[in-house]
Amino acid sequence: MSQATRTDRGSASTRRRGREFDAAIWMARHPGSLYVPGAIAASMAQFGPLPTSAVVAGLGVAGLAWYRADPPSWDRYAAPRLRSFRRRWWSYVGPRWTRVMRDADLTRENRKTGEERVPRVLRVRSVTPSIDMVDVRMVPGQTVRQWQDLADAIASALAAERVAITKLKPQHLRLVVEREDPFDGADPVEAQPIPESSEDVDLTALPFGVTEHGGAWTESVLGRHILGAGASGSGKGSLIWNPLRAMGPMIRDGLVRIRFVDPKRMESASAGPLFYQHSLCTDAEGNADIGDGVDVIESWRDDLIQRQKKLGSEGKRKFTVSRETPLDILIVDEIAMLSAYGNSGDVKRAIRLMAEGMTQGRAAGFALWGFVQEPTKDVLPVRDLFTTRICLAIGSANHVDGVLGDGMLQAGALAHEIPLGTHAGVGFVKHEQQRYPYRVRASWVADDDIAELVKNYAPEDPYDNVVELHGDREVA
Q1: Which of 16, 72, 290, 310 has the greatest number of beta carbons closer than 10 A?
Q2: Over the stretch 16-36, which tens digit does the pLDDT of each residue have?
Q3: Hey, what domains does the chain have and what are their CATH numbers?
């Protein structure tokens, strides 16, 4: 790759460094350029061309078999490395990269030698098919702000959809290059059909939509707390109703209990029969009162304590899904109304109860799903307790890391660049043990799809499980 040649600061010499030293430095920075050819050459010298060719062919066949037999593991482990290698040497090297920098007006001339100085690519990672992360060392004298002002020009020079630029450390920055938009112009993904029976439901892989690879986007809801964020119109409702439809038979059969707290009084208003407990955060006169929603959260926490006692008395460390010990999910839509914007007494109580339930609920089968538009730390102090995070289209770049975790904007999650309206349901997902986010699109769930779920899968007696778990407890 073309780069600037540094001159000795203590010398007025304008002679260029020898080409052989440039080559040696390049090979030291790219050891693979030595190891692979060296290994092949050594094998041919030791064993001959035929055995060496057989080994290389065998590796190729093994890779092809992996590609065909297990696409998920191939896409997770092998594809990003191969894609990164190909794009590194095809798009971000030599004359191609130099032309991009010239077109974006980011090259400089060495005042002493007259040589063109070009920002140097340090590393390329292509975790997804559509997004590259390119680490670059700037030419001395350039600033991150200068690069950010030229982001559109860089995107044009790379023939990319868009480019986001963030600072890594002094003189080093990262280009997040969105090469294409896999969901641009695509029709909405239809809601998945509801399974016929509880035996057909896999709680470790509930369908949410599709990934940018074209495969099914599934999520486990066992031992998981889910945070979904997105601006108004981003499609957050699909993050609620897709998994509920996928669990429909288990809700009907009492194997899954849903509690819904809806401060907006819109998302769940027509689906009351589906829920074990349901609050629209209103008082007896119909006025807004988040205290009613906090009472539901407290009931969820209390049932968690009772479940823990029950499991402990039976010598069990973990629950098993059954009518006696169902998966108990608390859904809070617009969680900020309970964690920040209500009166201080209710807010403190809600935060304490949610934190207690989230830290203790995994083994007992209690989970919390929270949804929010403005995911700042002040608005959502318990956000670090969520194990699965989904960020749809959002208004600010700063909010991306607030939802997905620190560094996720640099890792390619350009959620703030997702167009509203045409890209409803498009976003990025990050799990607690996952290094990078990946792009997805949630299936579109229409009102008729919700009505079908409520009509056919509402539990016949939503209080049966309470009686079984708590004996003579009276339920209002």
Answers
A1: 290
A2: 566 666 666 555 655 555 666
A3: 198-470 (3.40.50.300)
